[in-house]
From TrEMBL:
Phylogenetic lineage: Bacteria, Bacillati, Bacillota, Bacilli, Bacillales
Gene3D superfamilies to which the protein is assigned, alphabetical: Hotdog Thioesterase
Keyword line: Hydrolase
Protein known as: PaaI family thioesterase
SUPFAM superfamilies on file: Thioesterase/thiol ester dehydrase-isomerase (SSF54637)
Length: 134
């Protein structure tokens, strides 16, 4: 992937209404490798005053999309996403990364994880994404 495409990709994700709403931004981006971050926000807390699991899952889903699209110029959609929560979160910043398990042509299995700003594991996920037809 060339730098022009990666710059466009970063802007495309960061300009999306959902990313702006969640406070997600790119922390690092290169061909096939990315890290995104999200500050923990009071409006994302559940009734127990911990970060809602849906916010964490959204971060995992987002990093997978970024990672796949940084490795090839395609659009993708989630087939499934299994999330395993490891540690609760009340504050700070979360960081997400993903690894493509197998670069398939139509279905791409991926693993991803979220850590906090102390590098404490928050959640892991396994997923499969489908490549959308142009």
């Amino acid at each position: 992937m060339d730098n022009e495409y990666l710059t466009w990709l970063q802007n495309d994700f960061e300009d999306s209404p959902f990313w702006r709403h969640m406070g997600i931004s790119m922390d690092y981006l290169s061909a096939g490798e990315a890290r995104i971050k999200m500050p923990v926000s009071e409006n994302q807390m559940n009734c127990n005053q911990f970060l809602h699991g849906g916010s964490i899952t959204s971060l995992l889903d987002s990093i997978i999309g970024v990672t796949i699209r940084s490795s090839q110029n395609v659009k993708v959609a989630t087939i499934y996403l299994n999330t395993h929560f490891v540690s609760p979160v009340k504050d700070g910043t979360l960081y997400a990364t993903a690894n493509i398990v197998h670069p398939g042509k139509s279905i791409i299995p991926v693993e991803s994880k979220v850590v906090d700003d102390q590098d404490r594991l928050i959640a892991v996920a396994t997923a499969a994404f489908t490549v959308l037809k142009k």
